[in-house]
Write a structure and sequence with these properties.
about 500 residues, alpha/beta, Nucleotidyltransferase, domain 5, Hypothetical protein af1432, 3 domains, six-stranded mixed sheet
Length: about 500
């Protein structure tokens, strides 16, 4: 009882922090709860204000954009006050940085929030974008490219270490406002000149290109749509360099976007897609990446990490998320750890189902809403696929979701085969094994999870051994024996029940 009270108190007094991004095209506010545990915002709102709309013409912020922005920011301040968020980080990027009246706008915003607005330099923006990407991937090696309304930020990263940084004035809004005469040709020339001005970029051939920014996300969204890719999640969505080039060629001018009816997929950013496609295309030619990976984390997450002194890159971010998620979902007794400790000894670390995924599947598959077995299996499968954990790749999600599905129903059933076919046969097989092991654990825990502490599962030679104290022999029902037999069959092993 005391433990539960302590945990509840920790949750209800969770630390809330906010980041407000004053961008060239849009303004966005995010509120996080316990950012060091979960990097998924509990509030996320964007307003397209187009502060940098006329920047190339008169060097000033757009007057209507300023007016709209201030109204939006007043609303954001009201939300922060109502939410009792006191730790707020405000930063501005290219438009405010480059505008003649940027300092005047900055001062007005500071009066609203009674705190400083940090105007990032181009290199600071590139560094924080890279930090944000590192937060969302297990290990970053390659080029991070963050495309905004006013600028393109680039960073070369090797084993999570930022080696080079650059910022170029080729944001989509800025290029979109070029004079109309020979506009497309001129834009392509500007992009080429700017990218070729970065000497280290021309000499860099990389395996991975990590793309950040709303317009590039829209481009990846189009790829998901046209390929009919089943997992509609942008973070860690990846395509090959050749596939990316084909995609860019599909949308590199306005006529093509109309032909392919892109506005049915993304309306707000359709006008900028040709520019984003041409920038990406030239980056592909320069760096020759094998894979392009989409990141939803970038400069905002990187800013919060740096300003709040969070050292998260070397931490087990997936484990942090699972711990936090378990308590948020009411698992105050940490039952998922009982399941993990029960099954972990029969699974060694391997590429088909890494050991790091065992705790997530034990936690995320833990559900009982009084539904039938198959209904629970389907719901668990869907929830795990869409769980808001940045550290999970698409492959990870499907593996965990499959194992969670088979925790709740027999391995003779399958969920949506469109997802299953994205895995290899070996990956499917071990997901079945993990699911069968969890199903066995659930059978033992049907009376109480406390019995998982005293009954152990191990693998010796060609057999799986279930060791049971004599005092708990009544727990080994026919259902438990049936599930142990099913697990041994999936692992192609014999099974024994050892009483002691």
């Amino acid at each position: 009882m005391l433990l539960r009270k302590v945990i509840k108190q920790q949750i209800f007094t969770a630390k809330k922090e906010s980041v407000i991004d004053l961008g060239s095209n849009s303004i966005r506010m995010l509120i996080y709860e316990e950012f060091n545990k979960s990097q998924i915002p509990i509030f996320n709102e964007k307003a397209v204000c187009s502060l940098g709309n006329n920047l190339e013409i008169n060097g000033k912020l757009d007057p209507l954009g300023v007016q709209y922005s201030l109204k939006v920011l007043e609303r954001f301040k009201n939300i922060l006050d109502n939410s009792k968020v006191t730790n707020v980080h405000l930063f501005a990027t290219a438009a405010v940085r480059d505008a003649k009246d940027g300092s005047e706008f900055k001062a007005t915003v500071e009066k609203i929030f009674n705190c400083e607005v940090e105007v990032l330099t181009g290199e600071q923006e590139a560094e924080r974008s890279a930090l944000g990407v590192m937060l969302g991937f297990e290990k970053v090696n390659g080029i991070v490219a963050d495309l905004g309304g006013g600028s393109l930020e680039l960073a070369r990263v090797k084993n999570n270490v930022i080696e080079k940084k650059a910022s170029l004035p080729i944001g989509v809004l800025r290029l979109h406002n070029q004079p109309k005469k020979k506009k497309t040709k001129k834009i392509i020339e500007i992009i080429s000149d700017q990218l070729n001005s970065i000497s280290w970029l021309k000499k860099t051939k990389v395996k991975h290109l990590y793309i950040v920014g709303g317009v590039w996300r829209a481009l990846m969204k189009a790829d998901i749509f046209y390929k009919q890719y089943p997992l509609n999640i942008l973070h860690q969505y990846e395509i090959t360099g050749d596939e990316a080039l084909t995609l860019c060629n599909m949308f590199d001018d306005k006529k093509k976007t109309t032909l392919h009816k892109l506005d049915q997929i993304t309306k707000s950013r359709t006008n900028y897609i040709p520019i984003a496609s041409n920038i990406l295309k030239q980056l592909l030619f320069l760096t020759g990446p094998e894979k392009i990976q989409c990141s939803i984390a970038g400069v905002r997450e990187g800013t919060l990490m740096q300003k709040a002194n969070y050292n998260l890159i070397d931490e087990d971010r997936l484990n942090n998320f699972i711990e936090y998620s378990a308590f948020k979902n009411g698992d105050y007794g940490e039952n998922y750890l009982k399941y993990y400790n029960f099954i972990k000894d029969i699974f060694s670390d391997n590429e088909n189902f890494p050991i790091r995924l065992l705790k997530p599947v034990c936690s995320l598959s833990n559900m009982d809403w009084g539904l039938g077995a198959f209904q629970k299996a389907e719901l668990v499968f869907s929830q795990i696929l869409n769980t808001p954990a940045l550290a999970l790749s698409h492959s990870d999600r499907i593996k965990i979701a499959l194992a969670g599905f088979w925790r709740h129903c027999s391995v003779k059933y399958y969920p949506d085969l469109n997802f299953v076919k994205l895995l290899s046969n070996n990956e499917i097989l071990i997901a079945k094994q993990v699911g069968a092991a969890l199903r066995l654990a659930s059978g033992i825990a049907s009376i109480s999870t406390i019995f998982l502490d005293s009954i152990s599962l191990s693998k010796k030679g060609s057999a799986i051994i279930l060791s049971v104290p004599n005092i708990h022999s009544q727990i080994i029902t026919r259902t438990v024996q049936k599930r142990l037999k099913s697990l041994s069959k999936e692992m192609d092993l014999d099974f024994k029940i050892l009483y002691f």
